[in-house]
Amino acid sequence: MLSSRVVRFVLLAACAFGLSACMSARPDSAAQAERQAKAEDIVRRGYQPIEHAAIESGVQPWRVDGEMVPIAWTVPASGNDLPVVIYLPGLGEAAESAGVVWRRAWAQAGYAVVSVQPLGDDATAWNSEEARALEFKALATQRHSAARLQQRIRRLAAVLTEMRRRAGNGEAPWRRMDDARMSVAGYDLGAQTAMTLGGQHEAGGRNDPLAERFRAVIVLSPVVLPGQAEPTRFDGMAGPVLSVTGPADLDPTGLVATSSRTIAFDLMPAGSKFELELADAGHAMLAGAIEPERTAPREERASGRAAAPRSGRSRQRSDSGDGERNPSEGSERAGNERAHARELATAATIKAECEAAVQVVSVAFLDASLRRRPAAQRWLDEQVPQWLEHLGTWRRR
């Protein structure tokens, strides 16, 4: 059975990520117990990994190609020859804060996880001129361009070379990693890069040479740009791929169509291809972040609502000089707050369930792809639909 640390982490993440109002609403212990029971049930019934390790983490700034690149690592506290997962954050995400939910789950299962945002201005994209001008689609179009993609690939290649050099010098934690067993995982903008490292290429082109370094790919919120749904772009993706998306996986910039998220799975060659489509997982949830109110501002900016007041009614009261308040207004406000608290509790439960599902499935995928564990492969092939139940759908080919 998974260690209690995994379950506790899933539950803490549910209220921490974008739901800081949970604290002010003070959900009762019964609601918390219900969330805990549902998340624990998903974990208990799911695939059981080989390891349940204590973990450690850190961040090191490296000078790569003349620029400082933060490298965040999360690894088991002990052990050597650890299989590696390279994690690529989304647009506007920093390496150290991106995908913490996923990275910790993989490290607890015995993997060395290295997070890197190859280009520094991708981490600060929401402070760019385009973002300040509310030109979010233009910003996303520019950052997803073929030229920028190649810059990321080249920078990542340099980072991997530096990892190998440090491992050869006996530096921790790099000396404990087995870069012959390496996978890549990416979210949002990072998903585009991960798909390229999995074998996606220009129509009529060839796989990038760096793709040979990776045995498996996890794609959180797949990216298929307009005009790129062509089989010849995906015929090089011969290795294992896990795609995670859902009908609520909406791109806040408007660049990537939600309907295109599942097209990638359909266009890849058959063989060790899996797709987890979660019914209620929005784009922000797939980021796997835990800090309070991290994603809400991003989504508001992307829809042009960042500066809008959250409550016109409260602003009117603060502007009033006599301090008088209509009793019916206070009753209405209390009712709205109770309804909002119920909505937050429901959202927290959904988030806890979805995150538990992603963690269990992705760990099974890594165990099957990097460790070649037969039990993991059997679970992916035979047991996921029954285990998943109402949370979503599962496809494999």
Which fold name is given in CATH as the topology of the domain at 51-304 and 365-370?
Rossmann fold
The string of secondary-structure elements, in order, is HHHEEEHEHHHHEHEHEHEHHHHE
Sketch the major β-sheet. 9 strands, mixed
DSSP helix count?
15
Radius of gyration, CA atoms, in whole angstroms: 22 Å
> Could you tell me how far the N terminus lies from the C terminus, measured between alpha carbons in angstroms?
29 Å
Please, what is the CATH homologous superfamily of the domain at 51-304 and 365-370?
A: Alpha/Beta hydrolase fold, catalytic domain
Averaged pLDDT, please? 83
Report the count of strand segments: 9
Q: Give start-end ranges of low-pLDDT stretches.
A: 1-27, 293-323
Q: Which structural class do you get from the secondary structure elements?
A: alpha/beta
Spatial strand arrangement across the major sheet: 1-2-4-3-5-6-7-8-9
Task: Please name the defining characteristics of this protein.
nine-stranded mixed sheet, Rossmann fold, 44% helix, alpha/beta, single chain, 397 residues, globular, disordered N terminus, 9 strands
What's the helix and strand layout?
Elements: H1 4-16, H2 21-25, H3 29-45, E1 55-64, E2 67-76, E3 82-88, H4 100-108, E4 112-116, H5 120-123, H6 129-132, H7 136-143, H8 146-168, E5 177-187, H9 189-197, E6 216-220, H10 231-234, E7 241-245, H11 263-267, E8 273-278, H12 296-302, H13 312-319, H14 327-369, H15 374-388, E9 392-396
Parallel strand pairs: 3-4, 3-5, 5-6, 6-7, 7-8
Antiparallel strand pairs: 1-2, 2-4, 8-9
Helix pairs in contact: 1-3, 1-14, 3-14, 4-14, 14-15
